[in-house]
Amino acid sequence: MKTEHNLAKLDTIAQQKLQVDMAASSVAYHEKYQQFVNLAEVSRNQPPELQSYFMERLDYYRQLSQTIGVLESIED
After folding, report:
1. Which of 12, 29, 57, 73 has the greatest number of C-beta atoms within 10 Å?
2. Is 44 within the bounds of a domain?
3. What pLDDT score does 69 carry?
């Protein structure tokens, strides 16, 4: 059986959840690297019915970021 990877073929709810998940991971990334991120604005831009999902995913990515190292720049 072939797995479908075309995200455009996902139903609307699945696409929205994917976008919310990406927003949550982006916020966690910015927080980890101490970059400015306006959490209130990002949260406000999520669909109202997915606000709790956004916060769940944000908590997940925050916890995950504690277990992985920090990227370091390569100095020549």
Report:
1. 57
2. yes
3. 73
Cα separation, 70 vs 29, in Å, equals 10
Domain count, the chain: 1
Write out pLDDT tens, residues 32-67: 999 999 999 999 999 999 999 999 999 999 999 988
Count other C-beta atoms under 10 Å from residue 21's C-beta.
18
Neighbours of 45 (CB within 10 A): 12
Domain that holds residue 56: 12-66
Angle formed at CA 21 by CA 16 and CA 25, multiple of 5 degrees? 150
Contact of 38 with 31, CB cutoff 8 Å: no
